[in-house]
Amino acid sequence: MEELNKAGLYIDEIYRLRVQDPAIANETIELRQECLEYSRNLQDFKKLCEEFYKIAYNFSKVVESEKLRAIGTQNQLKTMAKQRQTEQQVYQSQILEQTVELERLKSEYQYLQRIESEQQEIINNFLMNQ
What we know:
It is a single chain. Helices cover about 85% and strands about 5% of the residues. By secondary structure, it is mainly alpha-helical. The chain has a two-stranded antiparallel sheet. The longest helix has about 110 residues, at about 20-130. The chain is rod-shaped, with a radius of gyration of 53 Å. The termini are far apart. Keywords: Cell projection, Coiled coil. It is found in: Cell projection, Cilium. This is Intraflagellar transport protein 20 homolog. Pfam families: IFT20.
């Protein structure tokens, strides 16, 4: 048996002739199995990463669309605020115009009342003098 070992030939536990030491062959088999397990784990990890990427990508699209919608809503609110401000200015100018018109009409009314009272006085004087 030692002569075979010196020649680089070995006999394993089921009495087959081998070129490699059985201990090294067992370690090689174990290493191959560990490598296959590592490869499977790596493939699983790759699948998980791809799924995570898809989910994150879809989520980013949703976030981007919501962001654009929020910006649109914000712009709409700013536009509405400006419109309200413009309407308020229009209403204030109309109020001012109406107030000026009211003052003018009050002055005219007072003037007409004075004229009426003067004319009434003239009529009264005329009627008294007759």
